Amino acid sequence: MLETNQYFKGETGLELTNIEWLLDHHKTKLQERRKTVDELNLKPGDVVLDLGCGPGLWTHLLAEKVKPNGRVVGLDFSPDLIDYAAENLEKDPLSNIIEFRKDDFHDASFDNDTFDLVFFSNCFAYVTDYFKIIEEMKSVTKNGGRIAGKDFDGGLFIVHPIEPQLSLKILTATAQALKEKPLEPPFDNFTGRKLHGLFLQAGLKDVSTKSYAIQKLSPLIPEAKRYIAGNAEWQAKIGTPYLSEEDLKQWRTHFDPNSDNYILDLEEFYFCMLEVLTIGTT
Ligand SMILES: C[S@@+](CC[C@H](N)C(=O)[O-])C[C@H]1O[C@@H](n2cnc3c(N)ncnc32)[C@H](O)[C@@H]1O
Question: Is 39 helix (H, G, I), strand (E, B) or coil?
Fold first, then answer.
């Protein structure tokens, strides 16, 4: 059994980059992720960069769209995640068009004008200089190519039937803690809302944004239970300095399968969170 902190922190020390966490996240949202990839309007032959690819789960979905003669490069600086991606690639029927590289996305060495699309998913949270990274992406994208940012936004996290007052206290405490006691390395839980403005300010053209409500109803698959309970525990952990013991205890009982207050098996359970996809042209 992983300790809570191990579950959230990958070997790079970043929050929410642990491999188990990323796999649960992917399985929980696979249906929605396929739709997001449809929105990218990729075509066979396109060359795509999956920047901050983690375990390479999106990389395969992207490759399905550009096969048989396209190419997808997945890049991440985490040795564990890239090793996992490379091991899985051995069994992947699309292995001939996928490549993984271990590198830092702040100074990845690609030739200019290489990619038709750069995909950057759930990574802006770890970036401190947004414009530097967007300039990097622009330089490796072909003239008229596209950059797609996909991020969640921590401002929406509905877990019914928990009292909204309690949920809002938890959200407020998390936001306050991240502002007043920032994580090291930094982590921004509210990047989804910023993507549209960032892409405009960075001078990208034809900027378009779509927001998706990710909804989960009962019965939940085990990965979704772990993902939602994990998310709730991450918020509790971050928000602790700004929460009463009573509120923390009550929140946690709702995600504890041994408690009478457990909500994840209830028929009326409803979960909703927000994801944002912004696309701009170079
Ligand atoms: C939340 S994960 C997202 C992974 C994947 N894109 C997804 O959506 O499932 C963030 C990823 O960014 C990677 N990352 C963070 N900072 C990085 C950097 N400076 N260079 C390369 N990768 C980085 C982490 O290792 C992690 O895999």
Answer: helix
Angle between helices 222-239 and 19-28 (to 10 degrees): 120
- Give ligand 1 pocket residues (Cβ under 6 A): 10, 12, 14, 16-17, 22, 52-54, 57-58, 76-78, 81, 104-106, 121-123, 126
Residue pLDDT, tens place only, 200-253: 999 999 999 999 999 999 999 999 999 999 999 999 999 999 999 999 999 999
**For the chain, how many structural domains are there in total?**
1
CA distances from 273 to 96, 98, 154, 198, 234 (A): 36, 31, 8, 22, 15
pLDDT tens-place string over residues 13-24: 888 889 999 999
pLDDT beneath 50, residues of the chain: 1
pLDDT, position 1: 45
CATH code where residue 186 lies: 3.40.50.150
Mutate to test the pocket of ligand 1, among 11, 16, 17, 33 (most ligand atoms within 8 A of CB): 17
- pLDDT value at position 88? 93
Measured in Å, residue 76 CA sits from the centre of ligand 1 at: 6
CA of 123 from ligand 1 middle (Å) equals 5
Phi-psi region of 280 (alpha: psi -120 to 50; beta: other; left: phi over 0): beta
Pocket test for ligand 1, best of 7, 24, 78 (most atoms within 8 A of CB): 78
Please give the residue range of the domain that contains residue 165: 4-281
Give the model's pLDDT for residue 12: 85
- Cα of 261 vs centre of ligand 1, distance in Å, is 35
- pTM over 0.90, yes/no: yes
* Cβ pair 142, 171 in contact under 8 A: no
